[in-house]
Amino acid sequence: MHIFNRVAELSSFTQAADTLGLPKASVSTAVQQLEAQLGTRLLHRTTRRVQLTQDGQAFYERCKDLLADVDELQTMFHQQGTQALRGRVRIDMSTSMARHAVIPRLPELLAQHPLLELEISSTERRVDLVREGFDCVLRSGAVGDTSLVARPLGAMRMVNCASPAYLQQRGLPQGPADVAAHHLVHYTNTLGAKPDAFEYLDAAGALVSVPMPGAVTVNNAEAYVAACIAGLGIIQVPCVGVREVLRSGLLVELLPQHVAPPMPLTLVYANRRNLSQRVRVVMDWLAQVVDDYLHAI
Length: 297
What we know:
Layout: H1 2-10, H2 13-20, H3 24-38, E1 43-45, E2 50-52, H4 54-75, E3 87-93, H5 95-102, H6 106-112, E4 116-122, E5 136-140, E6 149-156, E7 158-162, H7 164-170, E8 186-187, E9 198-201, E10 207-210, E11 217-218, H8 221-229, E12 235-238, H9 243-248, E13 252-254, E14 263-269, H10 277-294
Parallel strand pairs: 3-4, 3-5, 8-11
Antiparallel strand pairs: 1-2, 5-14, 6-14, 7-12, 7-13, 9-10
């Protein structure tokens, strides 16, 4: 696997042989034997280039993780607690969380562990953690899949927002009874799905939903806030995601006594008995980053 991995990284049998200190024929034979064992072709070979097949790409991705695990096992008894973490960690989170909370703090993590390789997916859709090969997912809202391990990280307070221009045109709603006459910017993970409603907790703590019209539906957190700033309607959003635009006056908070329930933040990962050290370290770091982000002034 190590030989195949080097060939895949360099897209060359010759360069792989040079870096490994092996004859090119030995490298080629090793890859052929691996393909025979697996029963599939891993590499397309031409006179000009070496390219991964579809099966080869899938096998290469798993190889990187497995080889990193082997390195970790080989060093676990040497300088325990201080050994260099190496290998890839794949994470998924919302676009907003990646932009505002996680990516600005990445330099400090990589300064401590320079051999780590982080792959960060930022999307609003619900990824399949196991099928898509993610080590962990930072998820907003309900977790859903009970087969996964869920580590609660906190909850985001919700606020209702609108732009000053929108409120000047349509007036400031004084209570839930007024919102039906207003527009809501609709948010959905899947376009074409049933539009959302204005939600709030009543005095008894029960969730109330008020259907509202809206001319615009988006499926991205950044677009959701941008549509509100543009005066297209009211939004209900985690406060941490709009702190700066509220301070700047681009948005105004309204109906503070009638807000949606706090949105939980959860770190989700597969139910593995033994997580690698690098994944544990990254998850602990993410938990601290999220806690700092939620409690920032």
